[in-house]
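Researcher: Let's do a round of design. I'm pasting the structure tokens now; please hold your answer until I've finished.
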């Protein structure tokens, strides 16, 4: 049993719908708080109920506008620590700045580490996140991190909606391990896209490693930002003889002209999750299907609160 007080779930403005859905699975009410902004744009936050000795979970993905939602999270963490909450867990389904996880060019920051420091310093006792862009980001924290994967939700969908003659495709070498796991669970073939990124948000597909001719291809990735990489991989697969192309990714960032690019791409269907609220334009795109990760996060929150193992959710 939990050594902390009662379970309480609160939300910022980043994805309130997800927080409410999590509360529905946990059979609890969403915590009462003021989450407004002053006229100058500063975040106006106040907890409207007693949280002394409570086990608090703050649901707040740091999705666009990233800086605003990150600042909301930091302010909320500070408020709960100053209100004598026993333990505060930052539930961050999407971790912003995750792509800045290494110094791969001269004179650049490692912003993912900086954000980890800010979250810890603001008062988080624990972090619950999902499909980090780079797994080593867990090591940037000096507090416990529970790193979940959307794979069980995604794989369950494709086990029900079977694609015959399936080949799972990694869009780059970094995604090979993820694609291999999907291929194993779906009894599918595996292919890899050899991709070179000249600069941020600009990728050039070089060639496909593996035979995809006459196959139905499923591109698996952790996120989609501008959609440029995904659409180029889909085009390369079609040129290599693929019959149909589907895609799935956990985080639908979909910035800039991403929705337009995906709408005009060779991809027949896109499956994603609700770690980030879909932009209005994306909601109108019929080829996008959203799966909920609320049950998975709710189970993890319940396990953390009750001090039971979360490892069964990692597969």
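Researcher: That's everything. Go ahead.
Model: Designed sequence:
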């Amino acid at each position: 049993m939990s050594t902390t007080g009662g379970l309480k779930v609160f939300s910022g403005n980043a994805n309130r719908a997800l927080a409410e859905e999590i509360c529905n699975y946990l059979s609890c009410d969403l915590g009462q708080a003021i989450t407004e902004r002053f006229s100058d744009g500063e975040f106006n936050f106040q907890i409207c109920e007693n949280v002394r000795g409570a086990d608090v979970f703050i649901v707040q993905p740091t999705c666009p506008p990233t800086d605003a939602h990150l600042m909301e999270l930091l302010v909320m963490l500070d408020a709960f620590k100053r209100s004598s909450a026993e333990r505060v867990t930052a539930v961050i389904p999407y971790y912003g700045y995750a792509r800045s996880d290494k110094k791969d060019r001269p004179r650049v920051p490692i912003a993912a580490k900086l954000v980890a420091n800010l979250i810890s310093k603001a008062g988080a006792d624990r972090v619950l996140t999902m499909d980090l862009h780079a797994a080593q980001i867990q090591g940037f924290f000096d507090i416990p991190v529970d790193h979940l994967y959307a794979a069980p939700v995604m794989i369950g969908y494709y086990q029900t909606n079977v694609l015959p003659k399936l080949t799972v495709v990694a869009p780059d070498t970094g995604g090979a391990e993820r694609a291999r796991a999907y291929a194993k669970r779906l009894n599918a073939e595996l292919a890899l896209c050899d991709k070179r990124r000249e600069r941020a948000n600009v990728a050039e597909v070089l060639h496909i490693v593996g035979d995809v001719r006459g196959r139905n291809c499923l591109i698996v990735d952790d996120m989609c930002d501008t959609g440029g990489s995904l659409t180029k991989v889909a085009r390369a697969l079609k040129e290599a003889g693929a019959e149909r192309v589907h895609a799935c990714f956990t985080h639908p960032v979909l910035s800039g002209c991403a929705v337009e690019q995906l709408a005009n791409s060779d991809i027949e269907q896109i499956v994603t999750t609700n770690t980030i609220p879909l932009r209005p334009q994306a909601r109108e795109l019929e080829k996008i299907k959203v799966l909920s990760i609320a049950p998975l996060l709710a189970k993890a929150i319940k396990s953390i609160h009750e001090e039971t193992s979360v490892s069964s959710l990692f597969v």
